[in-house]
Design goal:
368 residues; alpha+beta; DNA polymerase, domain 1; five-stranded antiparallel sheet; five-stranded mixed sheet; 39% helix; binds thymidine-5'-triphosphate; binds magnesium ion; magnesium; magnesium ion binding; DNA_pol_Y-fam_lit_finger_sf; DNA-binding
Length: 368
């Protein structure tokens, strides 16, 4: 088998790995990047403080300004009183939007599909990395690429669902990388204050605290009826989240996650030539589609359905995304040889996933 190919294992063992990325003090960091004299100083982005009489609010501020108690949405007059010597800068939205677009393009180039949720925040599905160890390596790489190409830091969380990934990314800001694998999920959640659950605002947190539920672990131990009395139909999901059972992945996205072909033989086949011939035809067709849409694939999978509908799947993740027929054929041949038990085959299928949609910003696919 080609040495580009690694880690063969059954698809059934797939564990969802979601990455959440959030830029650190985004607007302020862009201003500081553009004017390094501001580095290390309290910088506040927002309305004109007018010597403490301004009526607008703070958009965001540098971590140095946060040390004075300043935060987003605070009245700018209050920010001024907390730190009169801070540097107050009006927002430059066009610049932030441009930087955001560059970051999102980089992420799309890396992960194929992303779910952008705000100007500085996105989810990626890294399930094709197959292990948290590899995904963590990948995440560190993503942070490095953004630092090198955009000159900004971000905080990243890896976890088995989008909500846990978001909670993880907030854990070590700024410039953090927090990995919460299924094995560590329960111990991660247990001590966190209830307000750390996205969607639990100040009011809901107070309702929980009044009922004696301070931590997520307390919610997990609480009976569902008590939660239903407080939160009605939302109780089930809240309980599930607190117990580490949520597995929600990325939400709706315009880009395809996989492409596949299947072939059912007229008569169940035991002929390797016939089966490999069929695989070859499907690979050619899929590679043509990748070419047409300027996509590369990282994960190549095969599906065999035997007489009696017993179905087996197996896939392989490549070191580098590809659409080269020769490389993919080599992967498929290897998978087929390992999987096929010589029983008659009813249906054969090929699936390309981990699709990468490169873009002009991305310098080299080998970075990832
Ligand atoms: P956030 O990611 O919430 O904040 P941040 O990036 O400034 O800081 P952090 O390191 O904690 O992630 O929001 C992204 C940008 O959105 C932020 O830089 C400015 C803008 N924003 C507002 O304009 N008003 C607000 O109330 C908030 C929360 C953000
Ligand atoms: Mg941010």
């Amino acid at each position: 088998m080609d040495e580009n190919l690694i880690r063969i294992h059954p698809e059934m063992m797939n564990e969802q790995i979601i990455l959440h990325l959030d830029m650190d003090s985004f607007y302020a960091s862009v201003e500081i990047r553009n004017n390094p004299d501001l580095s290390g100083k309290p910088v506040v982005i927002g309305a004109d403080p007018m010597q403490g009489t301004g009526r607008g609010v703070v958009s965001t501020c540098s971590y140095e300004a946060r040390a004075f108690g300043i935060h987003s949405a605070m009245p700018i007059s209050q920010a001024y009183h907390l730190c009169p010597h801070a540097i107050f800068i009006p927002p430059h939205m066009a610049t932030y939007a441009q930087v955001s677009a560059t970051i999102m393009q980089i992420l799309r180039g890396i992960a194929g599909e992303i779910e952008q949720v705000s100007i500085d925040e996105a989810y990626l599905d890294l399930s094709c990395d197959r292990s948290y160890e590899l995904a963590a390596h990948h995440a560190a790489n993503i942070k490095q690429v953004i630092r090198n190409q955009v000159g900004l830091t971000c905080s990243v969380g890896l976890a088995p669902s989008r909500i846990y990934a978001k909670m993880a990314s907030e854990q070590q800001k700024p410039d953090g990388l927090t990995v919460v694998s299924p094995d560590t999920l329960e111990s991660f959640l247990k001590p966190l204050p209830v307000g750390k659950i996205p969607g639990i605002g100040k009011k809901s947190a107070q309702v929980l605290i009044n009922a004696g539920l301070q931590t997520i672990g307390d919610i997990a131990r609480c009976d569902i009826q008590t939660l239903q009395d407080m939160f009605g139909s939302h109780a089930v999901r809240l309980h599930q989240i607190a117990r580490g059972q949520d597995r929600e992945g990325l939400r709706e996205s315009g880009k395809r996650r996989s492409i596949s072909r299947e072939h059912t033989f007229l008569r169940d086949s035991t002929s390797p030539d016939e089966i490999l011939g069929s695989l070859h035809t499907m690979i050619l067709s899929l590679c043509h589609e990748l070419e047409e849409q300027n996509i590369y694939s990282r994960t190549i999978g095969i599906r065999i359905r035997y007489t009696g509908f017993i179905t087996r799947t197996k896939s392989v993740t490549l070191m580098q995304p590809t659409r080269e027929v020769r490389v993919i054929e080599c992967a498929i041949d290897g998978l087929f040889t390992e999987m096929w038990d010589r029983s008659p085959v009813r249906l054969i299928g090929v699936r390309f996933s981990g699709l990468i949609h490169p873009d002009p910003v991305q310098r080299s696919l080998s970075d990832f």
